[in-house]
Amino acid sequence: SNKKQERYLTEAYSLGCTLAKRGHTCVNGAGATGCMGAMNQGCLDSQGQVFGVIHEIFVEGKGSQWKEGCHDVFNQEGSSAELASLAVVGGDDLQERKRMLVKDAHALIVLPGGPGTFDELWEMACSRQIGFIDMPIVCVNVDGYYDSFAEMLQRAHEDGFLYKHPDEILVFEPTSEKAVQRVENIVAQNLQERTAGKV
User: Which of 51, 33, 58 minimizes the C-alpha distance to 102?
Assistant: First the structure.
């Protein structure tokens, strides 16, 4: 399993490093393992800003040791502690956590993941299609991991189930570095268009 995931973890670590070096804050679920953990480690190693959002279900009953389930970036001391902050949210489901993850965000970069990642991705894709948000959503399509998502959107488009073209909902890039570049370009273009519209 670890060998299969190595390609994903490498890109996740690279994403953390790239976000840090480009001066972006990395907002995520504060995980210590998988792609989330690798990304947090990349951010930590590159002295980047990290904001973690964790649900209280992972905190309850753990007393003063509750932070042990979070990545080490959230357990730093001294000057390194200033690079990371953590929010604990409640609720009977994950809605509040998902809301906090995208609050004030300028873009969403999606690494390979499981059902939690799929849930967050499709919810934001729906919000973008309807028009609740206009932030770019870019999937890091490592080794074609998200090919089936692209195919599903294309099929929905061809069969008349989408309000927007698939490219206006989700964008796919093969590496984390290209994903960050794509996001920066889209955000800059959107800002330029808004500014031009106000003149």
Answer: 51
Residues 23 and 46: their CA atoms lie apart, in Å, by 10
**What is the per-residue pLDDT across 134-143, written as a single tens digit (0 to 9) for each?**
999 999 999 9
In single-letter form, the type of residue at position 123 comes to: E
Q: What is the rounded CA–CA span in Å between residue 71 and residue 178?
A: 25
By the 10 Å C-beta count (0-12 exposed, 13-18 middle, 19+ buried), 32 is classed as middle
Which tens digit of pLDDT belongs to each residue from 85-122? Answer: 888 888 888 888 899 899 989 999 999 999 999 999 99
φ and ψ of 9, to 5 deg: -65, -35
Residues contacting residue 80 through CB under 8 Å, at least 6 positions apart: 44
Long-range CB pairs of 77-86, under 8 A, 24+ apart, other chains included: 80/44, 83/43, 83/44, 83/47, 83/48, 83/49, 83/50, 84/44, 84/49, 84/50, 84/51, 84/52, 85/50, 85/51, 85/52, 86/30, 86/51, 86/52, 86/53, 86/54
Strands, sheet with 137-140, edge to edge from the N-terminal-most edge strand: 108-110, 137-140, 171-173
User: pTM for this one?
Assistant: 0.87
